[in-house]
TrEMBL record:
Major location category of this protein: membrane
Alphabetized Gene3D superfamilies for the sequence: Periplasmic binding protein-like II
Keyword Lipoprotein on entry: yes
Annotated source species: Natranaerovirga hydrolytica
Record-given protein name: Phosphate-binding protein
Length: 301
């Protein structure tokens, strides 16, 4: 009987030892599995972070050419875009609207910039047109010129050569010096279309290439009149109200000042690389439109 008790005691000890060993192995296995899972999760997170960073890092070049009127907007957006993307280079060459449309169509540059709408023959190119801003065309004269206001009809007569003396509009008895842009200029095309004297510019006009040259020419002659984008108005010239409305952003938006036009980026979809697509998206984003406003143009949204 005593031997039976001893035997049962030994069996019980063996069973308990086995159970304890099993529990210990289970705990160790669970810990091992947990460590493996944590390591896998950490590795996956690192890979995911790497993928996100790879997607966010842009690099490459965007080439733009075209309107000198669009240039301050295009460059302003480009500078901010490059600040966000230090591995990106955006170039802008001011060649005029017609050249920009041609270069965009012939894929000389990724994007063409124009400050006029496409003509009928240009619409056949199949270009995408994206309005990135609006601009008013301002009539300017010398700060010493006493003229205070003109109507659109007055401006038409001046640029047709039908009115040649400032006294006809309440100004000094002095000959009007007419300053205009070069042929092919988007600003000139838009101005002539809006004022309604297309291809009938007076032969006495001084031709200046680019907004900057118009501005400096007018600033040097008290009897001169010219037209520029809003972004080129400064204290060296005086903006002339049209029918009582000064050329301002607010007056374009409320339609009291009507000599205005769109700034358009044109391109073939298959000629945009990833960086160019990102540039266009940025141009129309809230951040891009803030830049449009900061450089003196009128945002589209």
């Amino acid at each position: 009987m005593k031997n039976l008790k001893v035997l049962l005691s030994l069996i019980l000890v063996i069973v308990m030892v086995g159970a304890f060993a099993g529990c210990s192995d289970g705990t160790n296995n669970a810990d091992a599995n947990s460590n493996v899972e944590q390591n896998n999760n950490q590795s996956n997170n690192e890979n995911n972070d790497k993928d996100v960073n790879d997607e966010e890092e842009l690099s490459g070049t965007v080439t733009i050419s075209g309107s000198t009127s669009v240039e301050p907007v295009g460059i302003g957006i480009a500078e901010e875009f490059m600040a966000f993307n230090p591995n990106v280079i955006v170039t802008y060459e001011g060649l005029g609207s017609s050249a920009g449309i041609t270069n965009g169509n012939e894929r000389v540059t990724n994007i063409g910039a124009t400050s006029r709408g496409l003509r009928d023959n240009e619409k056949e190119f199949g270009l995408v047109e994206a309005v990135v801003a609006y601009d008013g065309i301002a009539l300017i004269t010398h700060p010493d010129n006493p003229i205070e206001d003109l109507t659109r009809e007055d401006v038409q007569k001046i640029y047709l050569g039908e009115a040649t003396n400032w006294s006809e509009f309440g100004g000094n008895d002095e000959e009007i010096v007419v300053v205009s842009r070069e042929a092919g200029s988007g600003t000139r095309g838009a101005f002539e279309e809006i004022v309604d004297f297309e291809d009938q510019l007076t032969s006495n006009a001084i031709i200046a290439e680019g907004n900057g040259n118009v501005q400096s020419t007018v600033a040097e002659n008290p009897q001169s009149i010219g037209y520029v984008s809003f972004t080129y108005i400064n204290d060296t010239v005086k903006p002339v109200p049209i029918a009582g409305a000064l050329p301002t952003v607010e007056n374009v938006q409320n339609e009291s000042y009507t000599i205005a036009r769109p700034f358009i980026m044109v391109y073939h979809e298959d000629n945009l690389n990833d960086v160019s697509k990102a540039y266009m998206e940025f141009a129309l984003s809230n951040e891009g439109q803030k830049i449009v406003e900061e450089v003196g143009a009128i945002p589209v949204n």
